[in-house]
Amino acid sequence: MQKIIVTLLLAMLFIPTMAQENVIKGKKERLYPEIKFEKTNHNFGTFAADTALLECEFKFKNVGKADLYIHQAFASCGCTVPDFPIEAIKPGECGVIKVTYDGTHKAPGSMRRSITIHTNGKEEMTKLYITGKMLPRKEKETPIIKVDED
Q: What are phi and psi of 125, to 5 degrees?
């Protein structure tokens, strides 16, 4: 009984689980997914603080030879929120990561935020960037209220 358990444990250690393998003429080749973005930077340009809720998209393609999974996507600041697909992206298929920037409570000026993407690909980590310049808020006129003193 112990021999069976030991044999099963050893067999489980040698089962490849992280990458698929392809055997071509006796050679083993690991098949990895590979994420390729159309762009890794997006510049919002100059925008008003009153309209500081902005969105952009980063389109990508799986140019690898295995299913691509995005495990995690997180931003360098809580004002930036990435939305990414959780289902597998097959080889040759495309996907989109949507990024929302909310600068409504941020100080005016230049901003640069990073979004870190973790995948099961050959390159496990990719960084995306958003930049822009927020103009100061327009000061609202304070209404003058006349009080009659009797």
A: -130, 135
Domain ranges (residues) in the chain: 33-135
pLDDT, tens only, 33-86: 999 999 999 999 999 888 879 999 999 999 999 999 999 999 999 999 999 999
Structure tokens at 146: 């006349």
What are the residues whose beta carbons fall under 8 Å from the beta carbon of 111, sequence distance 6 or more? 101, 103, 130, 131, 132, 133, 134
Superfamily grouping for domain 33-135: Immunoglobulins (2.60.40.10)
Tell me: pLDDT of 6 over 90.
no
84 closest CA partner among 43, 39, 131, 117: 117
Do residues 32 and 121 lie in contact, with contact meaning Cβ atoms separated by under 8 Å?
Answer: yes
> Against a cut of 0.85, is the pTM above it?
no
What residues pair up with 114 in beta bridges, in sequence order?
A: 129
| Average pLDDT of the residues in 131-145 | 76
Q: Of 98, 131, 134, 99, whose CA–CA distance to 113 is shortest?
A: 131
